Amino acid sequence: MSSHFYRKIRASWLMPVFFLHSFLWAQEPAKTIFLPKGRLFYPLIADPKQPHFFLGTRYYTTPVQHFFAAVAGFGEEFGLIRWTGSSPNEGFQLSIDGGLSAQFNLQSPSSNLINADYTGGIPMSWRRNGFSVLLRPYHQSSHLGDELVLTTKIDRINLSYEAVQLLLSQELGSFRFYGGGEFLMRREPSDLDRWIIHGGGEWVRRETWFWKARPFVAMDLKSYQENKFFVDTSFKGGLDFSGDEIGRTGGRRHLRVMLETYYGYSPHGQFYTDKNFFTGLGVAFSF
Predict the structure, then answer these.
(1) Do 134 and 64 sit in the same domain of this protein?
(2) Residue 155 and residue 278 in one domain
(3) Is there a single domain that holds both residue 76 and residue 155?
(4) Cα-trace Rg, the chain
(5) N or C, which end of the chain has less CB nearby within 10 Å?
(6) Contact 260, 254 (CB under 8 A)
(7) pLDDT, position 21
(8) Do residue 22 and residue 73 come from a single domain?
């Protein structure tokens, strides 16, 4: 067959791609950014499983005991490549992320580690104007503290799974709403139910107060099939302090001081079948 015929075939395969690009970006040329700064799908303020840097103290009410705990964690999303649309802050981005969150019982003799959750994922995000999408396959594994195992004789469950998370987010002025869910693939224990429904909302004041502070409130809601779709509720509110823009590409650091409360099944490791309630004070850092 002639080379002209092959060129026509190749063109027919590319037509849907050109059509989609024109529809989404109004024929703006795409630009590739290697190791981009920032995110296209903004982190969720009130999600207990959001990988981020934080420190805090909480008072827990559980079926077993009441106690004060120190909580700490770290985590971040690192952009690998971004294909922009009409703006450098829009387009498609491929990233990696990882995080750890841990709780320590301050009323035990040596402030025993209770549990640590480790997560790692590959976020794929897309943004245009105030609408964004996140598709994130990730892994989680959880581990009890040695002192807890030795002093309480608790039956250890090796909680570990891979899941796919899909979230849609819409920003309307100072407000943001999001919703979606997760599906667990390989999981241990093997009888762990697969579906999670996830949603929530945030309000962050656009105008700053003193010291570049903005008040905010955020609520995150999750329902696990494992727990008969009971709605776990996480609430955070406080002040967000934004840093000055730095570097040629801009970007801001954030220091968030907040009060928090949570009611529902525990978000910590193998305790997912236990209801608890906690309130606390925390500080979060965004780089």
Answers:
(1) yes
(2) yes
(3) yes
(4) 22
(5) N
(6) no
(7) 45
(8) no
3-state secondary structure at position 228: coil
CATH number assigned to the domain comprising residue 201: 2.40.230.10
Pairing of strands 254-265, 124-128: unpaired
DSSP string, 32-89: EEES-SS-SSPPPSS-TT---EEEEEEEEE-SS-EEEEEEEEEEEEEEEEEEE-SSTT
Query: Domain range spanning residue 8?
Result: 1-27
Verify that 166 and 234 share a domain, yes or no.
yes
Render pLDDT for 120-134 as a digit per residue (tens, 0 to 9).
999 999 999 899 999
pLDDT, residue 245, reads 62
Q: ∠ CA(184), CA(35), CA(102), 5° rounding? A: 45
Block residue for tokens 């922009």: 84
Sort strands 66-84 and 113-121 into parallel, antiparallel or unpaired: unpaired
List Cβ neighbours of 45 (8 Å cut-off, separation of 6 or more): 202, 216, 218, 220, 236, 256
DSSP string, 114-183: EEEEEEEE--EEEEETTEEEEEEEEEEEEEE-HHHHHHH-PPP---EEEEEEEEEEEEETTEEEEEEEEE
Residues 6+ apart with CB under 8 A from 219: 46, 200, 201, 202, 233, 234, 235
In this structure, are 105 and 4 located in the same domain?
no
Q: What is the pLDDT of residue 2?
A: 43
pLDDT recorded at residue 11: 45
